[in-house]
Amino acid sequence: MSQAAHKQKKTKSKSLVKSDIQPQNAKEHTSSFIMSWSCKHEQKKRKIRIQHTGETSVKYVGLQLWNASFLLCDHLLSNPSIVENKVILELGCGLGFNAIILAKCLSIKHIFATDNVASVLTQCKKNIELNKLNDKKNNKISARWLDWSRGNELLSKLTEKQFCVGNDHHWTKKDNQIVSLNDQKIDIIIGSEVIYDHKTSDILFDFICDIFRKYPDIIILLSNEKRLIFNEMTLVDEFYGYEQFIKNIQTCGNITLLDPTKSKSQTVKKIELVKIDWTNIPQTSQYERHKYLELIMLKLV
Ligand SMILES: C[S@@+](CC[C@H](N)C(=O)[O-])C[C@H]1O[C@@H](n2cnc3c(N)ncnc32)[C@H](O)[C@@H]1O
Fold it and tell me: Locations of Basic residues compositional bias (predicted)?
């Protein structure tokens, strides 16, 4: 991680719960990251530039850089087949770091980097341009508005106006073709640092259940940095939001699937949570790895 990014690191955990600095007051930085990894015995290197903010209020956390996204990218760069030729949906994309790396370093078909904060998506688009990935004809990355709390309506109606904030981040007819909405053709879902308080944790859990109902075969890859915080209600230290998310998956993760060809026919499947051991995954850029980083895969079994 660059010096600028290191400086951010000191403040970022705090900012999730305390700071109330709005983006217009916060300082912007541009950091460069050299991603270095090996692919089929060949050493590869790419430079990524990301414009990001220092401290922010919780609403604008997406404008900061987060360690968990580095870990997710390491995993995908080491296992490119997970995303090769795939249509990827990224949840809570923030600055677009993951999406830019996938579009620049790997042979993906397309990635939709989504978020529900318009200024975050605007910054994501700036970063896409900064990395020269905004080629209109052959672009592999789109920044789009998507709010997990609209989960029920998801995907069948993405291109309708109610899913947009302003004109800049709306889903288009072309997106519709890429995703082949009728065939429900999103291959994989990713997200980093998207579980960080009780509210987002619950909304995300409900949304993930909706996704599995629509896409029973999908794989969801999430990375997170667990934060130990004293809970004033229960008087115990807990991993804020994250423990609740894991508990929800383990205790309420039963998904009822209806068979569209047979009325009244249904099967119940369970969300399986697999913790991925990342200790042997090569580190492709400089950032701090520590025991509070987690990489998980969710799928229906
Ligand atoms: C801590 S940031 C992580 C950003 C990025 N994934 C990263 O790792 O750098 C969490 C992101 O989730 C987004 N988010 C939070 N709640 C959301 C919701 N209900 N729908 C969509 N995005 C949401 C935030 O706007 C923010 O960009």
Answer: 1-15
List the residue whose alpha carbon is closest to atom 4 of ligand 1.
94
Q: How far is CA 104 from its chain centroid? A: 17
Q: What is the mean pLDDT of residues 55-73?
A: 92
The C-alpha atoms of residue 191 and residue 194 are separated, in whole angstroms, by 6
How do 188-192 and 110-115 pair as beta strands?
unpaired
Find the 141 Cα to ligand 1 centroid distance in Å. 17
Domain with residues 67-300, CATH architecture: 3-Layer(aba) Sandwich (3.40)
| Distances 273 to 110, 291, 297 between C-alpha atoms, Å | 26, 18, 6
Question: What is the per-residue pLDDT across 271-287, written as a single tens digit (0 to 9) for each?
Answer: 999 999 999 999 998 88
* Closest residue by CA, ligand 1 atom 13: 92
Closest Cα to atom 27 of ligand 1: 62
Distance of CA 181 to the CA centre of its chain: 20
Lowest average pLDDT, out of 7-16, 106-115, 250-259, goes to 7-16
Closest CA to 94 of 70, 114, 111: 114
Interval 14-30 mean pLDDT: 52
Sequence-distant (6+) residues with CB within 8 A of 117 are 59, 60, 62
Average pLDDT over residues 165-171: 66
- What does the mean pLDDT of the chain come to? 83
